[in-house]
């Protein structure tokens, strides 16, 4: 029997400038800095054999951010890699996006547009199928990471099963 899985602890993202990443997540998602490690004092073997990175790379800094009640975000800044490389597009193998549930996607978009965040088309509302009731919009972090914010009261699939995806619990 497999070990019990409690849930997703964190998502690690490599950013070109950790200070920019922290400012962005604080401004957009109200992130709270939980802790920071600074540079790692490790050798080439550690980088290659434990992290799967080229042996000449190094971790300049690492920070854990708390964004609401969900999964934590861990930001890394490395040296020794091409920091101008673009993240994979969502359509490419290994492409990813992070979705944050917000109270009201429409109000969040208004606030963030006023702060200069540029969005793709939307906000959008799914009207049919398992995601009926899902309000969402995509945008990119300054370093190109694909992000999404979403809000909903209930979703279409809920009428067909007792299983539920994670979601924020409104404060009572």
From TrEMBL:
Keywords: Metal-binding
Signal sequence region: none
InterPro entries cross-referenced by the UniProt entry: Glyas_Bleomycin-R_OHBP_Dase, Glyas_Fos-R_dOase_dom, MMCE/EMCE_epimerase, VOC_core
Keyword Nucleotide-binding belongs to the record: no
Span of domain VOC: 7-152
The protein's name: Glyoxalase/bleomycin resistance/dioxygenase family protein
Source organism: Paragemmobacter ruber
């Amino acid at each position: 029997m497999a070990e019990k899985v409690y849930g997703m602890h964190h998502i690690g993202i490599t950013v070109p400038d950790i200070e920019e990443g922290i400012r962005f997540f604080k401004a957009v998602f109200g992130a709270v800095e939980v802790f920071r490690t600074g540079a790692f004092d490790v050798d080439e073997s550690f980088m290659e054999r434990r992290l799967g990175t080229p042996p000449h790379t190094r971790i300049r800094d690492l920070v854990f951010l708390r964004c609401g009640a969900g999964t934590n975000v861990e930001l890394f800044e490395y040296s020794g890699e091409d920091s101008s490389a673009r993240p994979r597009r969502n359509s490419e193998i290994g492409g990813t996006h992070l979705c944050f549930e917000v109270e009201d996607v429409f109000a969040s978009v208004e606030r963030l547009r006023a702060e200069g965040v540029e969005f793709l088309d939307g906000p959008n509302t799914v009207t049919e199928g398992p995601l009926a009731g899902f309000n969402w919009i995509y945008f990119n972090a300054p370093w190109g990471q694909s992000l999404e914010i979403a809000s909903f009261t209930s979703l279409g699939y809920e009428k067909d099963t007792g299983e539920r995806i994670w979601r924020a619990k409104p404060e009572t």
